[in-house]
User: Which sequence fits this backbone?
């Protein structure tokens, strides 16, 4: 049915554009901005028991004003609380139960905080570690769970009273009366004594799966109400409470930077969304909740796994060296405990021991997208604003422990002092002496990275931190000479470059190498007629790449024909002049100069000596400026300062597009027979290549000609990489690297930690990724080159020649809107839809999407794509609400869930 609808819809679009316009009616007009949310009316309630599944999925709760009103623990805990929507409406009807009598979407948990002692940090012990009592049987022990079997009473106006099914005062005695054997170890459950003078944490959860929906719907905006208090006094515990223990180390907002949308970066009380949507447990959306269920008690019922020569086999819920039988007393790692679980997950492929398998998650196969040494990514407690929300956010450097540190540094076995990758460590059986060596200063320095960034404010001692500044770039209208005003700061002070001299090879004392200038531009090409392209194309350059001219080259007076450098002036600014023959071609437009690459500091280890520095770019004065689509600060949410090409290009995506432009494709087919045959592929690379082709043989003449080729245009490449394994045909990329290097990318190994439809994760605005943007740029916007070709059977020499003359009439290209979409949406159905509506995908229509896509450049009409008719802003399948369909909060409100348009939209989304 879905395919039939799509075929009818596509045929209809092609056959009658005018009729489509009539059908869509008001699509042509400007709807104007959406109005602000009005106040809740008097007596208006949201009753979830009578709401549709879509209404439940899209309800948004008020995170600030949904509150715990009181907690009393005289026998089973009794909690009163208020639940409101974001628009201030009281919520009714939350008491739905399953056949076992458990609340389906409402749950409660409660834990006590054991204070720090003898160097060991504080930790949570959850009381809910038994089954609920019933009249017919005694409770049994479990790992931490939720109380959902109690009594719920609606008090009116969104207020409820819940009485726990379990009496937490009796849990200790109930557990002590049980019989334990095998992996059911009593000590794993901890000291369950009710201690009313300790800090307790109550969490109320509302969310999770919505009953009787297929495919399964969830509450996209689940809520966790977290309440820390002291039962003996009833006092609430906050960062300003005097004399009460707290444990708030990680802010959910920081997780959501990579796993969703963190909201306003300046408002630390706005946690955003992500956890529970892009991570397991749909109703658990707050790290404070995670911490009281993922305790060391998760060792209960789990076997202890011992490594053999540093490798585990089977499942690994609890790990320890041979001889440890009690995780509560011996040195063991409980992989389900929050600190251990999160550290090991993110340490991933950097872990020393191998074979980790926690509930089917293979830790060693996870690639973390930034340095795992950036502890501040999750732990921030150095400013008053940070300390107000995470008072213990600085624990990573002020309170080292065997558990926290050992969860990443699994090469160290503290009980024996064994270090499997280096010198022995002192033997420690407790945490009392950790900070004797590992002081806050020492820990900070040992985790410092070479590239200074917001999460890494200082490089290792002695290293120089550079900053590049480009003041201007001008081209003389008469001579065509290019003049660049630039300054380089070293640790905040303008540097003094070496004076120009013949044969000069070192431009700065104490350093080798130097930054360079990239010269990017646009000139008309086949598709644009006489119009200047809206993208850089560097027409006339090999593989459409901009020229790079280093500072060292310009300081070497033997290169006077290329240009020179003079200065500095009183501000430390230098003037670089690049003569016409080496500058932009005459007639080039949308010209820009980027400053990139780096100095290498002498006398330091090679791993940190390269002083990678943020790239910068400036347009030539008076020229048009290339549009900005991606916000590099958003890349920073996952990558901190993204370093590409060995640190040559850092952070600035507007520099990326100077090279990754529509005429660039992958280079694997240019690899010579000799280079391929002599290359020493790693076992992982061989695994990739033999997966692609079981008959792979690097000695086969001409084998490189069979490698995939596809666009390396920025949007195609980044969409394809981040879509990763979710694509029908994940990207396959082979690159002919400099010298003897060969690089492979296997898309099926890539997992995006965010929602793939969360385009806001990268784009500057929602409007920046709509097809309307491309439509407005026609005919200046370029198609994406997928394969370079000269019209003859491919040979290595022919492909090299075609790359030198790109764009060529016989190159395979894909129209610009389609290129952006098909890089993620590459199912046969999606490709058929695109092809029927103006895209021309060539062999990729029925074949894989990672190679040989598109049609000859000379045969691609300039404006056949009809995407905006339905996918433009305000249209029936506007890409903004479509990509927001499954995201929290960002849900279209203009479509009725009962309308035929909405039903069609939902079908189209199931690509």
Assistant:
């Amino acid at each position: 049915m879905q395919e039939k609808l799509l075929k009818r819809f596509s045929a209809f679009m092609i056959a009658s554009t005018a009729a489509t316009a009539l059908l869509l009616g008001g699509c042509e007009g400007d709807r104007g901005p959406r109005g602000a949310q009005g106040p809740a009316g008097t007596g208006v309630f949201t009753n979830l028991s009578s709401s549709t599944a879509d209404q439940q999925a899209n309800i948004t709760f008020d995170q600030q004003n949904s509150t715990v009103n009181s907690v009393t623990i005289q026998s089973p805990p009794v909690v009163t609380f208020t639940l409101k929507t974001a628009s201030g409406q009281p919520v009714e009807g939350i008491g739905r139960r399953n056949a076992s009598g458990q609340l389906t979407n409402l749950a409660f948990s409660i834990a006590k905080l054991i204070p720090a002692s003898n160097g060991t940090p504080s930790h949570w012990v959850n009381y809910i570690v038994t089954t609920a009592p019933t009249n017919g049987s005694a409770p049994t022990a479990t790992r931490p769970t939720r109380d959902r079997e109690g009594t719920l009473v609606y008090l009116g106006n969104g207020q409820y009273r819940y009485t726990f099914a379990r009496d937490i005062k009796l849990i200790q005695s109930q557990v002590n009366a049980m019989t334990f054997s095998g992996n059911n170890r009593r000590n794993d459950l901890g000291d369950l004594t009710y201690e009313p003078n300790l800090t307790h944490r109550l969490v109320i959860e509302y969310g999770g799966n919505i009953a009787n929906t297929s495919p399964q719907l969830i509450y996209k905006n689940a809520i966790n109400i977290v309440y820390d208090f002291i039962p003996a006094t009833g006092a609430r515990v906050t960062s300003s409470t005097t004399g009460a223990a707290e444990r708030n180390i990680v802010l959910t907002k920081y997780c959501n930077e990579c796993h969703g949308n963190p909201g306003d970066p300046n408002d630390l009380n706005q946690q955003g969304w992500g956890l529970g949507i892009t991570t397991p447990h749909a109703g658990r959306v707050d790290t404070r909740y995670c911490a009281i269920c993922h305790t060391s008690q998760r060792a209960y019922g789990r076997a202890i796994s011992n490594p053999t020569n540093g490798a585990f086999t089977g499942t690994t819920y609890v790990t320890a060296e041979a001889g440890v039988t009690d995780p509560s007393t011996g040195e063991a790692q409980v992989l389900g405990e929050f600190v251990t679980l999160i550290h090991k997950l993110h340490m991933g492929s950097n872990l020393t021991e191998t074979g980790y398998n926690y509930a089917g998650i293979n830790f060693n196969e996870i690639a973390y997208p930034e340095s795992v040494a950036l502890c501040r990514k999750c732990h921030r407690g150095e400013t008053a604003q940070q300390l107000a929300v995470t008072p213990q956010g600085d624990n990573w450097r002020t309170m080292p422990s065997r558990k926290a540190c050992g969860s990443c540094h699994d090469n160290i076995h503290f009980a024996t002092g064994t270090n499997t990758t280096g010198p022995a460590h002192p033997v420690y059986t407790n945490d009392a002496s950790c900070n004797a060596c590992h002081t806050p200063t020492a820990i900070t320095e040992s985790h410092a990275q070479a590239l200074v960034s917001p999460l890494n404010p200082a490089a290792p001692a002695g290293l120089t931190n550079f900053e590049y500044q480009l003041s201007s770039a001008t081209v003389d209208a008469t001579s065509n000479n290019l003049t660049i005003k630039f300054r380089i700061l070293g640790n905040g002070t303008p540097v003094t470059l070496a004076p120009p001299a013949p044969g000069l090879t070192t431009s700065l004392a104490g350093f080798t190498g130097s930054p360079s200038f990239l010269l990017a531009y646009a000139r008309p090409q086949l598709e644009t007629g006489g119009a200047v392209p809206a993208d850089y194309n560097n027409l006339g350059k090999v593989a459409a790449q901009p020229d790079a001219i280093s500072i060292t080259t310009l300081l070497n007076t033997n290169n006077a024909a290329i240009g020179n450098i003079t200065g500095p002036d009183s501000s430390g600014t230098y003037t670089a002049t690049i003569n016409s023959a080496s500058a932009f071609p005459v007639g080039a437009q949308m010209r820009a100069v980027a400053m990139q690459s780096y100095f290498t500091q002498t006398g330091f280890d090679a791993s940190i000596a390269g002083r990678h520095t943020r790239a910068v770019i400036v347009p030539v004065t008076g020229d048009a400026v290339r549009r900005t689509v991606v916000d590099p600060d958003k890349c920073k949410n996952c990558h901190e300062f993204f370093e590409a090409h060995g640190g040559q290009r850092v952070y600035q995506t507007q520099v990326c597009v100077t090279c990754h432009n529509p005429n660039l494709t992958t280079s694997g087919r240019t690899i010579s027979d000799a280079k391929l045959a002599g290359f020493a592929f790693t076992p992982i690379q061989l695994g990739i290549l033999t997966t692609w082709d079981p008959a792979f043989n690097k000695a086969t003449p001409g084998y490189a000609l069979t490698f995939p080729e596809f666009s390396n245009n920025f949007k195609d490449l980044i969409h394809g990489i981040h879509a990763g394994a979710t694509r029908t045909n994940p990207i396959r990329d082979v690159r002919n690297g400099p010298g003897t290097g060969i690089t492979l990318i296997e898309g099926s190994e890539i997992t995006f930690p965010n929602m793939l439809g969360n385009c806001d994760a990268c784009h500057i605005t929602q409007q920046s990724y709509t097809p309307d943007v491309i439509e407005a740029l026609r005919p200046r916007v370029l198609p994406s080159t997928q394969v370079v070709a000269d019209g003859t059977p491919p040979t290595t020499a022919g492909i090299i020649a075609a790359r030198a003359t790109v764009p060529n009439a016989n190159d395979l290209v894909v129209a610009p809107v389609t290129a952006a979409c098909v890089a993620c949406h590459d199912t046969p159905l999606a490709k058929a839809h695109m092809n029927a509506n103006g895209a021309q995908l060539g062999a990729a229509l029925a074949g894989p999407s990672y190679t040989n896509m598109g049609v000859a450049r000379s045969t691609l009409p300039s404006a056949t794509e009809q995407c905006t008719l339905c996918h433009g802003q305000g249209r029936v399948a506007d890409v903004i609400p479509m990509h927001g369909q499954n995201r929290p909060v960002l849900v279209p409100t203009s479509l009725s869930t009962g309308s035929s348009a909405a039903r069609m939209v939902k079908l189209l989304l199931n690509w």
Remarks:
- The two ends are 13 Å apart (CA to CA).
